[in-house]
Amino acid sequence: MKISEIRARLDATIEANLDSNIDRLGRLVGQPSVAAQQWGIDECADLVAGLLHEIGLESEIMPTGGSPVVYADCAGCGDRTLLFYLHYDVQPPDPLDLWKSPPFELTRSNGKLYGRGAADDKGNVISRIAAVEAVRAALGDLPCNIKFVIEGEEEIGSPHLPAFVRKHELKLAADACIWEFGGVDFEDRPTQILGMRGICYVELAVRTASRDAHSGLGGSLFDNAAWRLTWALNSLKGPDERIRIPGFYDNVHPPSDRDMELLASMPDDTDWIKENYGLSGFLKGETRPVELHRMSVFEPTCTICGLTAGYQGEGIKTVQPGEARAKVDFRLVPDMTVDEVVEKLRAHLDAESFADVEVKFIGGELPARTDPDHPFIALVNEAAEAVYGMPPVVKPLSGGSGPNHAFIHTLGVPIATAGVSYPGAFVHSPNENIRVGDFINGTRHIAYIIEAFGRS
Ligand SMILES: [Zn+2]
C-alpha cells in the first residue's frame, strides 16, 4: 500500500471513531484527579488502566511512593519501541466561579471541548489511545512496539518519576519517546519543542524575632524580617537582570549556531505576548525577536514567585514583622544542575552576611534536550507536515520545565512533542478546552508517527 493510501485509511478510521473517543475523553475528564489534593488519584489510575485495556493493551498500576504510574505495553510486528509519556493528574479547578461549565464534566460547545484536563493532559492521553486503536484497525497490526507511562504527579513536579524510571529502566527501554504535550501555535502552525529548561524551586525564610512587634519599638531597635529578606533578595539579581550568585553561569552553554538558526526561523510572537499580558515592553528594553527568543530559553532566570511579610490589609497597622518568606524559582539551562544552584545560593547568602536567611529546597528538575538533527525529530516533523500542511516551528528548548531529563538521561531516548493543544486552551486556568479539529489532527499526527516509526 502506498503511504498516501495508508494515511487515508488512518484518517477515515480516526474520523469514524471520533465520537467514541470524545466519549472516552468525557469519562476521563469526569473523574477528578487533582494531585495537589490527592483527590481522585487512585480512581483515575484505575480508569486509565481500563481505557488502555479497552483497546487491547495489557495495563498495570505500578506504585511509585506517591501517585501510581499506569503502565501498558503492546508488541508490534517490528523491533522498534515507541514510548508515550503522559500524565493523568490535573491542576485544581479553582477559581470555580470563573468556569462557564462544570470543570469535571466534558462540555462540547462551538467546536470546543471544555473541562479540566481537556488539554493538559487527558486530551493527549485519549489522542494516543485513539491513534493506537486506529493504527491497529486500519493496518491490522502495530508496526512497532508501544509502551505507555502515564504518571499521576506531573502537576506537582513529578517527585517520584525520575526514581521510578531508574528503577524500571529495562522495562521502560525504548528507541524513542513522544512527550505529553504539543499542538499548534498562535497562527495554527504545528510546533516541535526539543527540550526543557530545568528548575530549582526554593523558599527563603527569615525570622528576626519570636513575634511581630510594635514598629515604634522594633523599628528603632531590632532587625525587621521584611528588610532582611528584601536585602537578601536584592543581592541575588540586579536591574541589569544579571544573577549575582558567584559561579552561577559556570555551566551555562550558549546556544549553538544551529540553535540560533532555529530561533531565527521562529515566528515573531512578541506583539501577541504584549497584548495578552498588557505589557509595554520586555526586559532590558529588548525589542529584537530573535534575541527575545534566545532570552526566553537560553538564559537562566531568578524569579520571585511570591513574597509574604507583615500586614497587607486595609488601612494602617504599625507593625514590624518578625518573619518574612519568599518563594523563588531558578530556571536552568543545559548543563546547570539543581544541586549546584542550591549550594551556590547558600554560599552566596553566607558570604553576603545573610546567614540568617534560611534556604528551603522545595523541588527541582534538570534541563534536558534532544538534538535538533536527530532522525526521530525529522520523522515526527515530516508526519506533522503531512497532517497540518506545513512544517512545524521548531523550538530548541521550552522555557518551562518537566521530567524529560529522566527519559533523556536515563533511558537515552530522543523525545519529540505532538499533541492536541493550542494557545487558547487556558491550560491550568478556568475554561480549559481543546478544539475538536486539534483533537482530530493530534490523533492523526500520532497515528502517522507510529506508522512511519514502524516503517523506518
Ligand atoms: Zn499542566
Q: Summed up, what is this model?
A:
By secondary structure, the protein is α+β, with helices and mostly antiparallel strands. Helices cover 37% and strands 20% of the residues. The chain folds into 2 domains: 283 residues, Aminopeptidase (3-Layer(aba) Sandwich), CATH 3.40.630.10; 121 residues, Alpha-Beta Plaits (2-Layer Sandwich).
What does this 3D model show about the protein?
The protein is α+β, with helices and mostly antiparallel strands. It has two domains: 3-196 and 367-455, 3-Layer(aba) Sandwich (Aminopeptidase), CATH 3.40.630; 198-252 and 300-365, Alpha-Beta Plaits. The protein is built from 15 helices and 19 strands. A six-stranded mixed β-sheet has the order 1-2-6-3-7-18. It has a four-stranded antiparallel β-sheet with strand order 12-14-10-15, with helices on one face. Strand 4 (107-109) and strand 5 form a beta hairpin. The chain starts with a helix and ends with a helix. The model has no long low-confidence stretch (mean pLDDT 97). The structure holds zinc ion. Zinc ion is lined by residues 91, 120, 155, 427-428.
